[in-house]
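Please review this one:
***
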Amino acid sequence: ILLLIRNPKDVATSFYHFTNAMSPLPSYETWDDFFIAFMTKKMPWGCYFEYLSKWNKYAADENVMTITYEELKENPVLGVKNIAAFFGFSLTEKELQSVVERSSFQTMKKNSQKTHGTFGNILFRKGGVSDWKNLFSEDQNEKMDNAFEEHVGGTKLGTKLKYEVYCKA
């Protein structure tokens, strides 16, 4: 099992834009309204911190590889090599480069009309890291940090996310 996790602040930011672009999902007048719903577990697919907590039970299993979105953005070649090794795939250098190129956010966004139709414009927005800094107030940042610590702070997944997001930033 490949478990891809992401900075909860960027998850919230991305989901805010996603829900406001998808008419079947609840939309929010303001970021502040969305943030309250996100932090009070009123999201259509549940609470991201609870999701991480549940997966943390399996994070040490030998058949689970955890990787962060931030790791893949920082070094996609190493990420693909590690994923291939985990699944027992042997890739030539040419195959490796092809996978890296074809799975880049830019390429997927460019091809999204073919692969996802009009839904592609909603799914592939920016693909960056730290976009949360454009929305979060200092108080919201502190509340998210506190919730992170409360739910996953000392866990394997929490430690991995904290290192990728805070120590490398």
